[in-house]
Amino acid sequence: MIGRGSAVLAAAILAGSSVLLVRPAAAAPPGPGQQQQQEKRPVAEGYGGAVATVDLDASKAALGVLRRGGNAIDAAVAAAATLGVTEPYSAGLAGGGYIVYYDARHRRVHTIDGRETAPKAMRPTSLEGIPFDDAVTSGLSAGVPGSVAQWELALRRFGTLSLGEALKPAIEVASRGFTVDQTFHDQTASNAARFKDLTSTAKLYLPGGALPAVGSTFRNPELADTYRQLGRRGGSWLYGGRLGAEIVATVKRPPVTPGSTRTVRPGLMELSDLAAYRAVERAPTRVTYEDNDVYGMPPASSGGSTVGEALNILQALPRVGVHEYLEASKLAFADRGKYVGDIPGVPLRQLLSEGFAKERACLVGERAIPAPAAPGDPDGSYGPCRAVPPESQKPTPAEGPETTHLVVADRWGNVVAYNITIESTGGNGIVVPGRGFLLNNELTDFTFGPAPGDPNLPGPGKRPRSSMAPTIVLKNGEPLLAVGSPGGSTIITTVLQILVNRWDFGMTLPQALAAPRATQRNTAQTQAEQGFIDRYGPELTARGHSLVLNPEIGAATGLEFLGGGRVQAVAEPVRRGGGSALVVSGHR
Ligand code: GLU
After folding, report:
1. Is the Cβ–Cβ distance between 456 and 465 less than 8 Å?
2. pLDDT, mean of residues 283-291
3. Does the Cβ of 481 fall within 6 Å of ligand 1?
4. Higher pLDDT, 15 or 223
5. Vertex 376, ends 372 and 378: CA angle to 5°?
6. Is 396 among the catalytic positions?
């Protein structure tokens, strides 16, 4: 157990764990003329702008935009579009996502919700009885894409580039190609069984019937052309125009390979659903943890509310260690499940109130609370602890490292934290013929039901509850941190754990990202990486936790603002093949 203020000891312990043997923080800044961006490395420090993504090409795209005078929003859109080329199984123009943005000039945090949306014909029963895996690879799971509307809104509100200009780096990478790495190869391999059952997908990602070889160059001229036309014609080409019509046709009649026995259910999407789609600016969530103002995504994401509630619970406790981290997360997830979804009247203020957090915190004792724990009652009247019986709840399935998260800062001090996703690795598996991109399966984030009273049942025009938690932290009104991760509902715990690592365990940001992770989402067992089990297993087991191996949790990126204009950009050193951090200049 680690008391506040004895953090350095914990940092020393954790820094000794094998997971941290990878190059930690403070990699030497590049010397004059030394172009660090030629290699993929997880940490960079410097001035004038910074970026971290999972991918070197995407980070370079952002860096190029920053160097040519673009701002953080311009660079974030360029990086996201490039990830649609190089990480096409996690991100793309037919997906969705959330941007949290700090506008330096007005010193305000904004969010832009580009979440996919259910078609008008969707009903609470539309997914009932359908096996989850069948729904994943189907037209039915494809939500109305949000990314392009989000890019346009972000550029119009806060950017300086046109959509066409912001797409240029991605067009270049799609045309000239990128080098296939082990991650791309493995993700293709794990999708091969369904990709081969869809003609357009097999043609693009299993060329000649084979997996793209590691080290080979992968080109996507059709995607380059799609981006080019999108730049010229604008988002209306998708939201009601010809590209939209092709998406609808694909959703309704998925191009199943002749002879395949796979049932690929058609979807409910109409062109009118695309025409009705809007990206939306929403007020961010905000909690204050010690002196840090933590801003996140409001519903229908559960990211901001769940990270925020867990931080509030931790703050109400006298000491913060790994046990408390798991307990706070467990309780916050119980409340997430009951109260958060795309419904009117989510009790957000109460969920993020100090009174509610104190009431929840008083349940945390020496031993683990039996899970699943019951949700609390965020009714505004809080007193002594209420005895709450454990609830029965279906176990949360293991969630993979889907999706992607990127961070960008520019020379003016604007900051972006951006999660972009197509949900499963490979989305719904269906490439729109001739267009070079996969459709999302985001609607599988709805509760399938029957589940009376569940806030996350499907409905017409509804956005499925998300766990994405792009997060920006201000201290005294100035940016201090930006952080986020993929990983389904483990996103929430990854972001929370990084913040706890940074603040309560005294780690540097690179250490906080690299440290072994655990994820407690109100289930009987806590999933954890091997390094975490090795380090904390005996102590936590003695206190009633049950740890079970999850080999890899999350793939985070982050920024820390070190003062005087110096920024540290941080990506994963190992997970998902390691990410890429770059800065505009090593010198002021
Ligand atoms: N669909 C997930 C969510 O919105 C993100 C995908 C993932 O990371 O698995 O929470």
Report:
1. yes
2. 97
3. no
4. 223
5. 150
6. no
In sequence order, the 6+-apart residues with CB closer than 8 A to the CB of 156 are none
Q: What is the CA(402)–ligand 1 centre distance, in A?
A: 7
For the CA of 442, the nearest atom of ligand 1: 1
Distance between start and end Cα atoms, the chain: 41
CA–CA distance, 244 with 238 (Å, rounded to integer)? 4
**Nearest one of 123, 65, 34, 59 to 449, comparing CA atoms:** 123
Calculate how far, in angstroms, residue 257's C-alpha sits from the geometric centre of ligand 1.
28
Report percent pLDDT > 90 for the chain.
Answer: 89
Q: Ligand 1 within 6 A of 403 CB? A: yes
Ligand 1 pocket: which of 116, 187, 340, 402 to mutate (most atoms within 8 A of CB): 402
Domain count, the chain: 1
Per-residue model confidence (pLDDT) at position 70: 98
Q: Which of 403, 406, 489, 576 to mutate to test the pocket of ligand 1 (most atoms within 8 A of CB)?
A: 403
CA pair distance 514, 21, nearest whole angstrom: 9
- 526-528 and 547-549 beta bridge pairing: parallel
Q: pLDDT tens-digit profile of 368-388?
A: 999 999 999 999 999 877 666
What is the number of the ligand 1 atom nearest to the C-alpha of 419? 5
CATH number, domain of 68, equals 3.60.20.40
Q: Does 23 reside within a domain?
A: no
Q: Is 399 in the pocket of ligand 1 (CB under 6 A)?
A: yes
Q: How many whole angstroms separate alpha carbon 359 and alpha carbon 211?
A: 54
274 in a domain, yes or no?
yes
Distance 466 CA to ligand 1 centre (A): 6
- CA 538, 544, 546, 551 torsion: positive or negative? negative
- Smallest CA-to-CA distance from 283 within 298, 293, 303, 294 is with 298
- Model confidence pLDDT, tens digit, residues 184-224: 999 999 999 999 999 999 999 999 999 999 999 999 999 99
Q: Which of 421, 422, 446 to mutate to test the pocket of ligand 1 (most atoms within 8 A of CB)?
A: 421
The residue annotated as part of the active site, out of 86, 403, 490, 508, is 403
* Domain interval for residue 39: 32-281+397-443+469-585
Asked whether residue 553 is domain-assigned, the answer is: yes
